[in-house]
Amino acid sequence: MYGESSFTWEYVCGYETREQRKRRLLRRTYTLTAAVCIVSLTVMISVKFVSAGGVRFLTEKLQHTKTEAAAALPLGGEETEAVWEKEAAVPAVLVTEQTTASDEGEGVQPAAVHIPTVYLDPGHGGTDEGCSREGVREKDLNLAIALLVRDQLKEQGYQVIMSRETDTYVSKEMRVAEANRSGADIYISIHQNATEEGASANGMEVWYTEDDGRTDSKRLAQLIRQQTLKSTEATERELRSDADFYVTKNTSMPACLIETGFLSNAGERRKLNLAEYQQQIAGGIVQGIAYYFHPKTMYLTFDDGPSEENTRKVLEILRERNIKATFFLVGENVRQHPEVARQIVAEGHTIGIHCDKHDYDALYASVDSYVADFEKARQTVYEVTGVETNLFRFPGGSVNAYNKKTGKAIIREMTDRGYIYYDWNASLEDAVKNPDPKQLIKNGVETTLGRKKVVLLAHDVVGSTTLCLEELLDSLPEYEMKPLNEEVEPICF
Asked: What is the 8-class DSSP label of residue 330?
């Protein structure tokens, strides 16, 4: 039987059978059909991208790819601010997952494309001047900054709707009604501040309504505040969740209001009137919007658990924020706290193996000693949780002071067995005696180095980690938190 082999007596003799000719013509038909489909799809995508300013972004995306290597620098490495900014400059277009074919349909359905719409609201206008000092009027500054934001957003392919584009009066009710009708994805209102209580008050303030039922309003406000403070180096003021503003309370999409400075402060008033400073403010707002729609990725990981009290606190915080993380478990702790281990699994987190006993000398004495400890921990995790996992993390990391002689051989043995190990490229550095929660937050934020992909190390058995976790997460709004899985390319020392 020849089957699909191309070596046949007919081929040797220089002719083909009817069956071979039939197959050849079918292959030609399939090839031509596929080529037509590819060309058609390319034209459709090109048209959509051109209409959204996407040609510019396709070029930029190729440039961003060249900086990917910098995003995986080891802990303690260096990364320039320029590289960090390039990573964030991504096209506005959001592409949803492809839909697979149904039993009746044929082929894979093309991915849906969504171009985000931003509703920009320069506060006041017309007869409503807002606050003013020394001839500098709030309504004018609000509009000038909003127009700069609009232009930058449109350059990046976003759709933008403005509550006003000239010096006209529009009521708050009309602004909100228009935004709600438009189907905009987010709402950003731009204002200036002033006070009669003293000329020294200064800085930038961002407001959102906490009880509006839209949790993304907080994240939007965090990003606008974070990125605008970074672009302007303005004085940092508290993020305010008690906004009683009509525009943040009554919009149907995530909304926030930024007051970019105090007109009652002479020095800040002069800055706010400068075109360069207005550009810096606009750039920060645009960068915050970019991160809102295109967040970077952080894999939040916890070692050494579970513990009865601290791990449960960590799980509660993650549950309230709908965040999934990865827990690298210690076998003896799983045997002591089996219910906590089962809770980790029940709440949808990823489980990996850390070790059975945290004894570095015994663990790294030889390949056999390491494997024996690992397999004992893995068996314990399986018996308690029912989870068979191939993910693990070396105690101390894959390169440490205890495995200099055996480390490479252990890595080779474990990878040959099909196991996948993950180091980290950012850390709370919480595995120390009496860590200070504030310092842990600083460590966590600073060691990310603005990378596009971060595996963050923390320890759920440390009390200080539970105390700082919420504030840490609030300090990283530009990251989307995800659990590790076997498809995630490991960070390795």
From this structure: E
Tokens matching residue 393 = 């993390």
Query: Per the structure block, which two tokens stand in for 156?
Result: 């990046």
Rounded to two decimals, what is the model's pTM?
0.78
What lies within 8 Å, CB to CB, of 146 at 6+ separation is 120, 121, 122, 162, 190
List the structure tokens of 331. 């076998």
Q: Please write down the long-range contacts of 109-115, taking CB distance under 8 Å and 24 or more positions apart.
A: 110/41, 110/44, 113/48, 115/52, 115/157, 115/158, 115/159
Please list the residues that pair with 427 across neighbouring strands. Answer: 457
Radius of gyration in angstroms for the set of CA atoms belonging to the chain, rounded to a whole number: 28
CB-based contacts of 185, cutoff 8 Å, min separation 6: 116, 117, 118, 253, 254, 293
Residue with tokens 């000719």, as numbered in its chain: 21
Q: At what angle do helices 81-88 and 54-65 cross, to 10 degrees?
A: 140
| CB-count burial class (<10 Å; 0-12, 13-18, 19+) for 379 | middle
Question: What sign results for the dihedral spanned by CA atoms 142, 144, 147, 152?
Answer: negative
Q: Are 187 and 249 in contact (CB under 8 A)?
A: no
pLDDT digits (tens, 9 = 90+) for 358-404: 999 999 999 999 999 999 999 999 999 999 999 999 999 999 999 99
Closest by CA to 341, choosing from 322, 323, 354, 358, is: 354
Residues linked to residue 461 through DSSP beta bridges, in sequence order: none
- Which whole-number Å values give the CA distances from 373 to 310, 388, 435, in the listed order? 25, 16, 29
Instruction: Spell out the alpha helix ranges (H) of 364-406.
Output: 367-385
**Number of alpha carbons in the 13 Å side-chain half-sphere of residue 297:** 10
| DSSP state string for 290-321 | HHHHS-EEEEEEEES---TTHHHHHHHHHHHT
Phi and psi dihedrals of 207, rounded to 5? -120, 150
Domain 296-482 fold:
TIM Barrel (3.20.20)
- CA distances (Å), 243 to each of 211, 247, 259, 477, in order? 10, 10, 12, 20
Domain spanning 114-293, CATH class: alpha beta
Strands 113-114 and 94-95: antiparallel
Residue range 267-312, pLDDT digits in tens: 999 999 999 999 999 999 999 999 999 999 999 999 999 999 999 9
Q: What is the pLDDT of residues 151-172, one digit of tens each?
A: 999 999 999 999 999 999 999 9
